[in-house]
């Protein structure tokens, strides 16, 4: 019996040793893969810089999907390279993926690609990543409408992806000389998105001159719309404690007191009523109500809030 016990203990020790060696081999293999990924991404970046080209992180992933396995691996590699060289992704010629879509009565050329929304106004195309690549913009539209349905509750208030939408909108306003309207949810996150378009990002105030559209006007939706259009109670939600904290924080921003007092009144009404609702609530009675009645009526009757912003430095407040 004693002899068999010793053999069992010897077997256990052998298994532990094998597991230890396997872990070391796996760790060595992982380090080798990390090195291979970094080198591969560095080679791509080198080519981009040498040829003065740009691509997205998603483009890099699809160059070698079997090596990278998943997008997160490429993302980490890009971040590591930026840390290593103390630079931004922009310096590597790695650009953000286009955020959002454009559709309607417009056509333009992006690099070698012709984007003809005007031939099919119901088709949507990705927003261009690089404004420098746009030329020959033609439009017969009367205004530009920004419908922002970003899931702000789940994503950071500002990201590099939003820079695409901001810079493209600014470009269109400057080139076409059209009024721009913004339609957002009636909640603190919707307003935060609107404020970023108009006043610039509070996180990147030094970019406010470039990444903002001071001419944009707040089209809706407003807390008062709920009663005015007799929307069903099921579409109305109570502000959460997080919503209230965010709204109270927004109300302390200096531009709401100096440049946008009417906006502040709308937010105070939202806080007092303690309710919020989404853009889609306006489609409760009819799927076409929003596009055929609400938006045209707001523009025709001037039911919007237009604030002219004069001092970009105040965006840091």
UniProtKB/TrEMBL annotation:
Enzyme class label: isomerase
Primary site of residence: nucleus
Topoisomerase 6 subunit A/Spo11 TOPRIM domain boundaries: 167-299
SUPFAM superfamilies: DNA topoisomerase IV, alpha subunit
Compartments, record wording: Nucleus
InterPro entries linked to this entry: Meiotic_Spo11, Spo11/TopoVI_A, Spo11/TopoVI_A_N, Spo11/TopoVI_A_sf, TOPRIM_Topo6A/Spo11, WH-like_DNA-bd_sf
Taxonomy, superkingdom: Eukaryota
GO biological process, any: meiotic DNA double-strand break processing
Keyword set, alphabetical order: DNA-binding, Isomerase, Magnesium, Metal-binding, Nucleus, Topoisomerase
Pfam families xref list: TOP6A-Spo11_Toprim, TP6A_N
EC numbers on record: 5.6.2.2
GO cellular component: nuclear chromosome
Family of the protein in this entry: Belongs to the TOP6A family.
Protein name: DNA topoisomerase (ATP-hydrolyzing)
Organism of provenance: Aegilops tauschii (Tausch's goatgrass)
């Amino acid at each position: 019996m004693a002899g068999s016990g010793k053999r069992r203990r010897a077997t256990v020790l052998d298994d532990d040793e094998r597991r230890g060696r396997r872990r070391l081999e796996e760790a060595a293999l992982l380090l080798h893969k990390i090195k291979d990924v970094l080198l591969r991404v560095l080679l791509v970046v080198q080519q981009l810089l040498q040829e003065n080209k740009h691509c997205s992180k998603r483009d890099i992933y699809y160059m070698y999907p079997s090596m990278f396995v998943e997008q997160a691996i490429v993302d980490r590699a890009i971040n590591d390279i930026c840390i290593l060289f103390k630079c931004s992704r922009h310096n590597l010629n790695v650009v953000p993926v286009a955020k959002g879509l454009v559709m309607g009565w417009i056509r333009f050329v992006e690099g070698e690609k012709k984007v003809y929304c005007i031939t099919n106004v119901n088709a949507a195309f990705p927003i261009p990543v690089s404004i420098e690549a746009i030329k020959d913009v033609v439009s017969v539209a009367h205004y530009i409408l920004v419908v922002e349905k970003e899931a702000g509750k789940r994503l950071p208030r500002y990201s590099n992806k939003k820079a695409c939408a901001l810079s493209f909108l600014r470009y269109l306003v400057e080139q076409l000389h059209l009024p721009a309207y913004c339609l957002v949810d009636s909640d603190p996150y919707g307003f935060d998105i609107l404020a970023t378009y108009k006043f610039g990002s509070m996180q990147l105030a030094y970019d406010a001159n470039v990444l903002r559209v001071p001419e944009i006007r707040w089209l809706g939706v407003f807390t008062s719309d709920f009663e005015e259009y007799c929307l069903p109670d099921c579409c109305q939600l109570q502000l959460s404690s997080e919503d209230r904290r965010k709204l109270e924080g927004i109300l302390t921003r200096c531009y709401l007191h100096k440049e946008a007092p009417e906006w502040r009144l709308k937010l105070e009404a939202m806080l007092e009523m303690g309710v919020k609702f989404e853009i889609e609530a306006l489609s409760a009675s009819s799927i076409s109500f929003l596009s055929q009645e609400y938006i045209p009526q707001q523009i025709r009757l001037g039911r919007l809030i237009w604030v002219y912003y004069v001092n970009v430095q105040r965006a840091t407040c």
